[in-house]
Design brief:
single chain, two-stranded antiparallel ribbon, 12-stranded antiparallel β-barrel, 7% helix
Length: 443
Amino acid sequence: MSAATFRKTSWAIVASLTLFAAAARAAEVTRVVSALDGDSSFDFNLTASWTHDAKSALIKRETATPSGIQVHPDLKYAQTQDLLTLRADFGILWDVGLHIEAPLVLSDSNTLSFDCDNPGSTDCVTAANSSFVRDQILPNATGSPLFKSPTRRGFQNLGLGATWAVFNERRDDTKPTWMLGFDAKLDVFKDKRYDPANPTANDATGLGYHQLIWSTWVSKRFRHFDPYFGAYYMLPIRTNGSIFQNYNPATQTSVGPQQQAGTTIGVEQIAWENPRGDQRVTIEARGHAEEHFAGRGYSEIWEPLSGSPGCSVAAGAATPCRAGLDQLEMVDPTNPQGNPQAAPYPGVTDIDAYGSFGGDLGLNIQVGRYIRFRGLFGLTVDMPHFLTNANAGVDANHDLVVNSLDKAEANPVYRESIDLPGRRFRVEQTEVWSLLLEGSIMF
């Protein structure tokens, strides 16, 4: 072989290897932004994603009977939410990127109606046998649906985050792409509240707590398949003045919002690819599981449970406090007016730990070097769990009894009418259908 022929063959081999390395792209969940990388000073991506969620669930209620505690149907819950998330990613170092995102709630509303699929049947719930109506949780509710929330709109939080690709398959195809991420979703916008005396006064979407999220993602391509795995943990930190208040540090047994952790396992099947033109089409399938730890949170009935901040226990008050929910019977030396005391219920409740499981199927299309699209459709189900399960308080004097009339022992957010076993609310058959459409411009 001549020297010229050897040089030509060598260059052909190098070019082929270079092309193969460029084609070794990671899955969408491990897409890397970088900087100081050859001819590209830094990567910059703009992404807009729209998510539509449709949620349904059954609200049931415990009843104490001589034979034990039974669970009976009560209400049906339905919610729809449209969310537009705007995000910008930019590389700052080799395989290190920062991002900022702002989720904008376009519309979020829910309804409660009686659980009655067969009118006239013995198991049909109506105003005559609904415990929600019987206990005067909605004292003036009439018509159908029984309750309709205000339509909430606005920015939910401000997200700041960083990602680091410890390994990058595009640089070294013998290794997977492994990313570490941290996100801080800051509660800087108005928090959502509900006042039954003025239902439309607050249509905000803020949660009342910051979210610190640690995550990791790994993907590795094998010919026409690109499997991936991810995990995350979310730590909420309640903000000052939020709905998550610590009314009595000595006796309130649960204060903070629910923590979350989850995993995702998925695969992208490369249906078509043109490495030279940075084009490809992949079919994506994934499953995910989340654990919602026990804590306080916005349940499906948090708005109807909320009491008016201006309610009064005085007879004939324009905005009366609901007996059993917005009133506390306590021995309190600092209150010369005696009992009962006005204590408007905050709405958020002590929610049991529960798991969520679901899956998605979708399509990813990269049109070229600068544009890509993504679509996912899926279903998530929540395991049955109690929505109202606060502890009665603490046994301060060690007499083996928590005295609900003693401020030194009683939990200020405990309400016997909804937290006592035999009266608790429970949610079952929760389904959330989701549609995600996403587009990105990449520079």
